């Protein structure tokens, strides 16, 4: 019987499977979520939009683009928002890649990249991270061919944590041809403290082929409402908006994002608290003997190799994210749950006689 068949590109794409539910929401260190309640004013302004749910949202996202424009000093045409920066990336790749094209990204990096890329039918070129879990931008530049259309640079890198430096990114952009889009994924930019870290906006100021991805999901704590955006030169931003379904970001989500932008002081305090907790977590784990790569995000990486799954099972009470054969990513949570994680990590080492 002939039956409808989806595109061949789907054959290699795994179905997304949600992780095991955590003991409580606070005990979930597996998704890099913000453990704190929404910023002041966010609930009220989002709730005020709920009574208008019979109306379509503002598809032009005028207020959101206006606020971002004012905040970042770039005209509104530089922005393209969507339901999370992952959705924006899907739109961007749909707009710029087709079968026969190549895309280069580091590996291990964000697990959504292969899904977004494979859907386009383009060919993936993965460049291994260096031993210290950083991007090898020289090797990535070497991997660019005349077929390459897009390069993804995740900084800080999910799941390993380190940033790309400004010097490294500049040298890379000087080597990459101007027709190759370089996507700088800054999902965790608010947590970065390293003064040498690359800044996507600086790179964009000097290079027309740069696209910066930002999100309200992590530092701003709006993961459940789905708002992210790209910053790019107007022609590139327009290509992303064209490839995005209309009316995706709800007015509730837009209002929450706007209110979050207005709560800068509270955001700064919250980010500072998470960064402090991150420092304490790294220090405690290193004191136990763990090899923890430098992290500038709201998570830490333990390169456990073949022990990744076993360690994750041992940490079940706080639900961490294992990558089989590679390592475990642990999000920075509340102080109490972080302390629990550190205890479990120490117990795991003792039980195996590692000190
Ligand atoms: C979390 C994350 C995103 C953003 O996800 P959205 O919720 O879709 O905005 C983007 N890139 C990386 C690397 C991430 O870890």
Automatic annotation (TrEMBL):
SUPFAM superfamilies: PLP-dependent transferases (SSF53383)
Record's keyword terms, sorted: Aminotransferase, Pyridoxal phosphate, Transferase
Gene Ontology BP term (one): L-histidine biosynthetic process
Taxonomic lineage from the root: Bacteria, Bacillati, Actinomycetota, Actinomycetes, Propionibacteriales
Gene: pat
NCBIfam families from the UniProt entry: PRK03321.1 (NF002878)
Reaction it catalyzes: an aromatic L-alpha-amino acid + 2-oxoglutarate = an aromatic oxo-acid + L-glutamate
Role: Aminotransferase that catalyzes the conversion of aromatic amino acids and 2-oxoglutarate into corresponding aromatic oxo acids and L-glutamate.
Superkingdom assignment: Bacteria
The protein's name in its UniProt record: Aromatic amino acid aminotransferase
Database matches in PROSITE patterns: AA_TRANSFER_CLASS_2
Family to which this protein belongs: Belongs to the class-II pyridoxal-phosphate-dependent aminotransferase family.
Entry cofactors: pyridoxal 5'-phosphate
Aminotransferase class I/classII large domain ranges (all copies): 28-341
Residues annotated with N6-(pyridoxal phosphate)lysine modification: 218
EC number annotated for this UniProt entry: 2.6.1.57
InterPro entries tied to this protein: Aminotrans_II_pyridoxalP_BS, Aminotransferase_I/II_large, ArAT, HisP_aminotrans, HistidinolP_aminotransfase, PyrdxlP-dep_Trfase, PyrdxlP-dep_Trfase_major, PyrdxlP-dep_Trfase_small
Assembly and oligomerization: Homodimer.
One MF annotation (Gene Ontology) recorded for this entry: aromatic-amino-acid transaminase activity
CDD domains: AAT_like
